[in-house]
Structures are given as structure tokens and as C-alpha cells.
Amino acid sequence: MAKVAVVATGLAMATSMLSLAPIAHAATSCSFTTDLTVGATGAAVTCLQQSLIANGYSIPAGATGYFGMQTKAAVAAWQAASGVSPAVGYFGPISRAAFTLGNTAGGATGGTSTVPGCLPGYAFSPATGQSCAAGSVSGLTGLGRLTNISSLGDVSSDLDEGDATTAVMGVSADATGGDVAIQRVDAEFTIASSGGSSNLNKYVSDVSLWLGSTKLASMDPALGDKDGRAWTYRFSGLSNAIIKSGATGNIYVKVTPVESIGADEDGDTITVDLDANSVRAVGGDGISDTYVADDTISGQTFTVSSSDAGTLTITAANDNPTASQVTTASTSTNGVKLLSFNMKAKNTNAVVTDVVASFGTSDDNLNDVISTVYLNKGSTVLKSKTLSTGTYGTITFSDVNQTISKDSTENYTITADLKGQTAALYVDGTTIVASTTTTGWDVSDVNGATVTPSAAAVGNTMTLTGQGISVALNGTPSSTLITAADPATTNSEDVRQFTIPFKVTAGDDDIYVSGATGTGEIAYATTTTSTGSSTDQGTANLSVGDTVSGDLVGSYYKVLAGTTRNFTLNVTYTATDDGYTGLQLSSINYGTGTGMGQTYSSNLNTFKTPDVYMSYTN
After folding, report:
1. Which of 19, 25, 443, 519 is deepest in the core (most CB within 10 A)?
2. How many domains does the chain have?
3. What is the rounded CA–CA span in Å between residue 396 and residue 402?
4. Does pTM top 0.70 for this prediction?
5. Would the pLDDT of 434 be above 80?
6. Burial class for 213, CB neighbours closer than 10 Å (0-12, 13-18, 19+)
């Protein structure tokens, strides 16, 4: 993530992006002797682009010196805001005169500003997406930044013509170390090459940005930056886009489907992405960061279809189990959750008669590992089935008879009873996975028409161990400031203790867990999102909530077969440079004997504290 020093400091940085008045300073820096239009190049174009960008007009490619469609759109937005007519993006004699004279067309006076593209009665600028209402970011506290950025699952993939505004991309982020103001979000839409139009406005009539239930910005889909079948929309100059310290903000990209979809566009797939560095935000210190790593937010897809038939959208639920290790017994292990998924009906009620799921294993035969699988709704078992031989298989939960009401969402889970782990059946380390399918279902709408599920809900791999452990968080990872840096003293630094509580469950065998901390034992590191430098004080320790015969404190702890023990890892870091620091649990040394020697790392990527800002005075 790139950190950018901003010329303005503190809240001036946050508010500067809202001061998007028509250009009134150009005469001192740019000189235009010829008209400019698409295809023009040179220093005059570069200067025009730099001036437009500096005053808040969107040119995603930057000041390239080439007058392309992005520059044309930015000029048109400036013309509309400055009263230059016609506002078509041609930079001719009238525009050159208005530009040189700083003509604001009744705009920026007395400290107020005119938003590019806003006309009387507009709520949002069709050119920049920002609110036409005057606004500013104020009251930011702390040295905030965004952490724990991840995709949101509560978005829609099947839209119909005439639908209300609907979220098609979502991302959550935590404000850590102080309040955070969202300054800019870039969203990219890519239309699949399936014979339909490459223009997004043939599918949707509006593209908007939301923070929770608050609409931040809206853009005309025809005014995005087009590259082939891809469209990019930059939402900037945002008002009321603040995530308070310690809170989680949910950012959504929403669209409004057109009232009538064309036959060629009906059902075409559109992918929405937040690319690398597509989110910019600022804390109270006026330092701006860009967010979203290349692999953080995967593309989410949607379609716009004619509204005659019912649809059924299938998605993995937010509580879908992550890939992890599951302890098994030599007799049986029951109720292991393999998959959690949602079903949503659109246009009409959907009647679900049969549900089809697939199962896979690393063993030779599924029925060596799994005795019974269940389809559940809440605590109610709808149907149960046994599996056949082979490493992969599908089963049909028949006659489940579920009616999903129009526009409602219902949650279902698939659980399994596992056979006892013995050498004759399956070995330690065997994996299993479950998913739904898109074929074989029996679903109909109220008209009796067949409905095909939109997608498969995919489960994560579970690793089975009878001689190992399973590990889960036993609370919320946190940190506590022990000593604060003194700004008036040289070589003064923050000292902070980081804490991760977790619990370990043994299978059929007694297990020993290392009581030592460090590489090869209870291993830890700073989080991958840490930006500051810090030194481990060397006082890390692992504590346990009870006492068991066989413990050797500081060396190993005994977890009896079939039981769970609670542990707490404490690590103290001292800042050696300003920046954010967090603690991550990396691996656990364990074994059936006191020599241990086995390593557990499954699912530990979520065992981490929030990043916090640590100061150093030199």
C-alpha cells in the first residue's frame, strides 16, 4: 500500500478534495494558442490536463499529453460547471477565453465551490459522481487507517430490468487508530464478450457509491472511462464518508438496472472489480493512503435479465467455514459443518424440490470417511443421505420442498457425520470438501417454469486428524499501550503488548503443545499489513487457563484426548519507527510426545490483532 504525503495537513487534506471550483488560476500557468480536441498532443494538452486534475476533474489516466476521451469528458464537465455552451468537450475559442479569464459562471465566490457537472436540481454530478451539495469532512480524530479489508457477500448477482438500485460489489474495512475519511473509490465494470453492447448504459442507468446505507456519489454510466468492454468510474470529493475509529465500514458499489433490457444484452455477465490502490482514505493527520491489494478483492459478477421468469441466486454465506483442521475420534465425529449457503428468489417465489451437492476427498472412497451428510435449515434436518465409493460424488437431497419467497433470502447448511478414524478407513491428514452444484436441481417459479441456480456455493477444504489438534480463537485479539512516546524526548517510543487468545482441542490421543515462544515453537510475527518498524522485547509468553498433570511450564502443556484447553499469547513490541503494527500467530509446535515436532498452521491467518499506530521520536 502506498503512503502519500499530502500538501495540505490535517483536515485541510480531507476538505481540499471537496473544493472543486471551475478553473480560476489557469492564466498564470497555461497558454493556449490553438483549439484542442480529441487527438491533440503536446505541452498545452498536458497543462490543460494538469489544471483540470488539480481542480478535481477526473482524468483516470493522468496528464499524459494526449487529448483522449477521458480529457474530453473532463473538459465537458468543466464547461458545464463554468457556463460554457455547448458543453461537449471541445476546447475551442470560447473555452480558451473562459479558461484564461477564470470564468466561474456564478460559481465559486465567498469561499463556496461549484461541483463540476452540477446543474440546478442535480443531487450528484454526472461527470464526477460527487454530491452537488456543499459539504466538508471535519472532526477526524487520531491517526486512522483502514485494516482488515475483505469482500462482502451481501451483494446480488441476478438483476432484472426495472429493479431498484442494488449492490453488486461490497468491501468492508476497519478504521484502526482513529477516524478515517474515504476520499476516492475507483470501480471497474467489464462486460463479457457475448454479443451484447459494450456500453454499460445499455444495462444500467446509474452507478453509485454507498457507505452502509448512506449514498455518497452517483454517476451516469455513459460518462465513465471506457477501454474496450471495460468501464472505470472514479468517485471522488466525497461527503459524509467517515468510518469512526474502531468501527467497520461497509462500502458498496450499486447499480440501477435499465427499465427494459435489450435482447442482445439480456443475461450478459458483467464483472465488477476494485483493482489495486482503488480506494484512497485519510486520517486526522492528513496522511493519505491507498488501499486494496491485487489479491484482496475478487471480481464479483452480475447480470441484468428480462423480468418474466423467476431466478434463484446461490451464494456462500458469511459463516461458511474457512479451511481448517478438524479433530476426529476413533469412534465417530458428528455434526461437522462443511458448507453454509444462501438461496434468494427474484421476480417470483421459487419452489425448491431437489438440492444437489458434491463431495470430494483425498481418500480412495468417500464412504470410508463420511457416514452421513445432512441438509439443514437452522436446527432442522431437511434430508440426510449416505455417500457412495470414489473420491468424488454428487448426491441429491430429494423432496426438500422449500419455498423461497420473492426477494427473500434463506440460509442452509450441509453437515457430516464422520466415521471413526482408523488405519483401515482413512489416514491422518485426509481432506474433505463440499459444494453445491448448478445442475440437477429441481426448482420452479410460480408459473411452473424451470429455474436454474445462478452459481455453485463452494466450500473450503477440511483436514481431518485423529492424532492432531484443532485450533480456534477464544476471544478477540487486542493490544494495550504500556508506555507512550514522549514527543519532547529523543529516542522515545511507544511500547505495546499484543494479545491473542486461542483454544486447542485434541483428538483421540493426548497431545503436547509447546510452551515456548519463537521460531519452531509458538511462532508469531508482525502482520503483513504492518507498516512501522518495531522490536520484539523478547518477553513473549504463552499462558494457559488451567493446570493439567504432565505440564512443564515454559516447555510444553498437555491437552488430554477429547478435551480443550485455553491459551493466551502475549508479545510486547517497542516502536523503532512511526507506523502501524499488528501481531499474527504463525504456527504451533505440537505432538503426541513431549518432543512434539509437528506443526499446525491451518486457519491461523485469521489469528491476528488489529494494526495500531506506534510512534517513535528520534
Report:
1. 443
2. 4
3. 14
4. no
5. yes
6. exposed
